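Submission checklist for the structure archive. All mandatory fields must be present; incomplete records are returned to the submitter.

[x] Identifier: Sodium:proton antiporter
[x] Organism: Alkalibacillus silvisoli
[x] Residue count: 597
[x] Sequence attached
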Amino acid sequence: MENLLMVMMLIGTLGVLSQWIAWRTRLPAIAVMAIVGLIAGPILGIMNPEADLGDLYGPLISIAVGIILFEGSLNLDFREIKGMRKPVFRIVTVGAFLAWILGSLAAHYVAGLSWAVAFVIGGIFIVTGPTVILPLLRQAKLKPRAAAILKWEGIVVDPFGALLAVFSFEFIKFLTIETVTFDAVIMFLLASVLAGLIGALFGYGIGWSFERGLVPEFLKSPVVLVTVIMAFALSDFIMHETGLLAVTVMGMTIANMHISAISDMRHFKENISILLISVIFIMLTASLDRETLLSIFDLNIVLFILMMLFVIRPLTIFLSTIGTNLEFREKLLVGWIAPRGIVALTVSAYFANVLMEAGFEDAEILTSLTFGLVFGTVLAHGFSIGWLSRKLGLSTDNKPGVLFVGSNKFSANFAKTLQDLGVPVIITDASSSRLTHAEKADVPFEHEEILSEQMEYQLDMTPYDYMLSVTEYDSYNTLVSSTFKPEYGKEHLYQLPLQRNKGDQLSDVSHHISGTVLFDGEVTWTALNEKINGGFVFEKTIITQTYSYDHFLDDCNEEDVLLVIIRQSGTVDFFSPEKNNIVAESGDQVISLTKPE
């Protein structure tokens, strides 16, 4: 028991550490996790989770994959693909079918597998999946269209890949084994339909009960988690691998019911999903033995991986999207990005054993083939998606942007100053009259309530790393900060200091639910706009070797307000009483609100 606890502790620690290293180094998280797992497992031999966990290994991975797939499908709101339903539908249907056929042909003629095994593995390899796609999308900051297509394909096709493998296997048994009748194939089809119905029923039940207040707030996340596991286990008990379909349908059903509790549910599941992805990748890679690792470099396997990367994937995307409104550059990016992940590994491991037991000896190389494709695609796509998307103009500007909530004279002019320095900015406000300030300053704006559900589909927030709540209402600024804290984190979420004379009485709670306080902590909305009306100007000062930051501070008037430092690297640092050690270096620019001479 003590050894088991140590192994589980080590797996969790390495998984989270890998995510942290990826965040600090800006490397693809999937690639870091794969490398860390290999080092801890087959290279150094510190652990072998498959052997250490024993019978728990398979069920733990299966349930984790189900939860990850459900979390991803919670984001599949049909409103997101408005205007893109045709290419998305084509890719997840025609594209998936072409990928299956072409992948099977490559598995037979290039990898040397028998037709039976080739068609099973061809079905498995159509999957990409949220475990690999979602981390890459977060890293690359793709524009909405390309990101939506890759996300929908990854989540929707995942269960179909597993089902195709099951269907291929059942059909092969029908053709090759005399005792197997066509009833088995019919049973598979019925089990798949039943799994979809179970997912839809469970999803609707969750949404219906939440909207009618039948489940208290503190129980909503546990209820969803248990229900996901129940839907997955029940469907998988009826027929193996149909659980993935059930949880995907369940998530999509909830996502399109537009229930009020979905945001909190999504945040909770996303946190769990990140942890599970980290843990599973470590478990799978650390369980790989050295013989399998070395066999990946077999010539046939290498040629098969290259064929999948450079021929089959681009061909399926270009053929399936003929006659759609996808641009050539979008087809090029989507046709390149198709990393395989956890679902491919787990399903192929299952079928490697099943096929060998059925007498197909060539299935022995399926594990090596799958690991080779997973490592090859994860490394190739993980390290290239950022560069390629920038070259094709499908990623947002590398410079971190600023989203202002609230249009007024101060925010409009401050946004204009940042825009002139090349920082992406936008102002949102529900009032058209207040937005005249943004319009006069000639800065981008969005006439929408930032807290409305529709805002998520009206505005792409990907380019904006910082959110500044700068309205005249303290309660509203605090509410905005509290709402967006899961997405931005407190370090990227700012709000104006409280206007104590308004009697909001928020001082005792604002530290816990608000964003980081802006500027010196004393300059309120009223004071800032009075300064603008009084002729104060936004001054940009470049710090040099001869004119240091200390010299600049000595020259500042006591009425001046230090706003932000634009670093030479392009990053921004807003002044705040919670960041006492902020210092401008040579080459940085300091923006201040300065009293004119």
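[x] Structure attached
Curator remark: The two ends are 74 Å apart (CA to CA). DSSP finds 24 helices and ten strands in the chain.
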